[in-house]
Amino acid sequence: MSSKMLIDAAHPEETRVVVVRGNRLEDFDYESATRKQLRGNIYLAKVTRVEPSLQAAFVDYGGNRHGFLAFNEIHPDYYQIPVADRQALLDKEAEDESKAQAEEAAHDDAQSSRRGSGRKKSRRKSAAKSKAGSPDGDVEDADAAGPASDDAIQLASSDLSETVSEDAAPPGADTNGGGEAGEDENGESVELIGSEDALEELPVRARRSRYYKIQEVIKRRQIILVQVVKEERGNKGAALTTYISLAGRYTVLMPNTARGGGISRKITNPADRKRLRKIASDLDVAQGMGLIIRTAGASRTKAEIKRDFEYLLRMWENIRDLTLQSTAPTLVYEEGNLIKRSIRDLYGKEIDGITVAGEEAYKEAKAFMRLLMPSHAKNVQPYKDPEPIFVRHQIERQLGAMYSPHVTLKSGGYIVINQTEALVSVDVNSGKSTREHSIESTALRTNLEAADEVARQLRLRDLAGLIVIDFIDMEERRNNRAVERKMKEA
Question: Which of 122, 150, 242, 490 has CB atoms 3.0–4.6 Å from 75's, for a disulfide?
Answer without folding.
Answer: 242
